[in-house]
Design goal:
Keywords: 4Fe-4S, Iron, Iron-sulfur, Metal-binding, S-adenosyl-L-methionine. The chain is an alpha/beta fold. Helices cover about 35% and strands about 10% of the residues. It has 13 helices and nine strands. Strands 7-6-5-4-3-2-1-8-9 form a nine-stranded mixed β-sheet. Helix 1 links the parallel strand 1 and strand 2. Helix 1 runs parallel beside helix 2 and helix 9 crosses helix 10. The protein is globular and about 50 Å long. Bound molecules: S-adenosylmethionine and iron/sulfur cluster (2 copies). The site of one iron/sulfur cluster has 14 residues, from loops.
Length: about 375
């Protein structure tokens, strides 16, 4: 496949690149998704996107411009959706990132993995994360009928092709979201339902949520500190009542997580958890709305200095998946000018001393294994 990367009419690379550019870039390629997973803050029961009458996606020319502008620092990329494999030019995005030598990872619901397996192997993204939330019956209750079978077929094909072509990448992983519906079924998925030998990575993640009070407090911060009078519709997709989590058995969750972690250690499979260190106490604090009290919760967020996210509408922010406070739009301005512009500065200044009520639902709010 030919790679057309240069936009001949575009202006030269921003001179600001020499001073600052994001090292980690999330691209929400599109809003659309072919599933309606119950817990999803975008398309789930309370999802923020359900009411939208018009769905958008990033213009491929703009995506290529961003990739080209930031290429001197070779940022790490995460592609996002909706469902990233539904983006019509997903092959061109992966080819462009390969061409410029950037590493890229993306999550997928797995339903289109079989169809795109050849293209993915050809473009060698670094990691593909397939979302799976339990054995077939539980996964399909949370994610939709027939999804488990399609996703497992996708993993098998991707793995087989990678072996056949003798390639190292993509590494294949699964993301399991621990929710009131799935929490009893972690071991069953990995030890009975899936061929775990096909996996290089396993990530176990607690359902992200904010309480109705967090949402009101966030709206007030946006109004009082950023002059933004908004109903914070995107963050509203994360709102859950604490009573939904009351039945969850913290001891059982901690036990099952430990058993998966031990398996991974023994077999050399990369293990990730959000939040890290899922002890009984962690589970209790997290699902009672007290995740800010966790030992691994950060006191200060470094992401506004490190990473940026561009959503399908072209809006830019650093708060992953929370698109209410935006700092510019790539359909109107070059990314690096936004990154180095006054709104980003104001946002960073605020976060030097404060956090947001939404931080407790953000996977970036927890220290990684290497951070103390
Ligand atoms: C929003 S989806 C987008 C990518 C793709 N559609 C997928 O499902 O993998 C990204 C990841 O967020 C997870 N997710 C959805 N709702 C969540 C929630 N409330 N808390 C934590 N993770 C969630 C999904 O399971 C998936 O692993
Ligand atoms: S597939 Fe992904 S984006 Fe779509 S509803 Fe499920 S979690 Fe949300
Ligand atoms: S939501 Fe909070 S933790 Fe997440 S990136 Fe934004 S400031 Fe950082």
């Amino acid at each position: 496949m030919s790679v057309q990367l240069r936009n001949e009419t575009a202006s030269p690379i921003s001179p600001l690149l020499s001073t600052s550019a994001p090292r980690w870039i999330w691209l929400q390629l599109l809003e659309a998704c072919n599933l309606r997973c119950k817990m999803c803050y975008e398309w789930g029961d309370n999802g923020a996107y359900k009411e939208r009458t018009m769905l958008t996606q990033l213009d491929i020319k703009v995506v290529k411009q961003i990739i080209e502008d930031c290429s001197p620092v070779k940022p790490y990329y995460d592609l996002f959706g909706g469902e990233p494999l539904m983006y019509p030019q997903i092959d061109e995005v992966l080819a462009a990132l390969k061409y410029y030598g950037s590493q890229v990872a993306f999550p997928t619901n797995g339903t289109l993995l079989e169809k795109h397996a050849e293209m993915i192997i050809e473009n060698e993204p670094h990691r593909v994360w397939v979302s799976m939330d339990g054995p077939e019956e539980i996964n399909d209750q949370q994610r939709g009928k027939g999804v488990f079978k399609r996703a497992t077929r996708g993993i098998e094909k991707l793995h087989a092709l990678r072996e056949e072509k003798g390639k190292e990448f993509p590494k294949i992983g699964t993301i399991f979201i621990i929710t009131p519906l799935t929490y009893m079924h972690v071991e069953e998925l990995f030890f009975k339902s899936l061929d775990i030998t096909k996996l290089d990575h396993i990530s176990l993640e607690f359902q992200s949520f904010i309480t109705p009070e967090d949402h009101v407090n966030y709206r007030n911060i946006l109004k009082n500190n950023f002059d933004l009078d908004t109903n914070a519709a995107v963050s509203k997709g994360f709102v859950r009542e604490l009573s939904e989590f009351i039945e969850m058995n913290a001891r059982e969750i901690a036990r099952q997580v430990r058993s998966i972690e031990e398996y991974c250690k023994e077999k050399g499979v990369y293990f990730n958890a959000y939040p890290q260190n899922m002890t009984e106490e962690t589970v209790e604090l997290y699902f009672s709305g007290n995740s800010h009290k966790l030992a691994h919760a950060k006191k200060r967020c470094e992401f506004p200095w490190l990473s940026t996210e561009i959503n399908a509408r072209g809006d830019v922010t650093s708060c992953h998946a929370f698109y209410d406070l935006t700092l510019g739009n790539v359909n109107e301005q070059r990314l690096l000018d936004i990154w180095n512009g006054p709104k980003y500065k104001q946002y960073r200044n605020y976060l030097k001393k404060n956090s947001f009520p939404i931080c407790q639902a953000c996977c970036l709010n927890f220290k990684t294994k290497t951070e103390k």
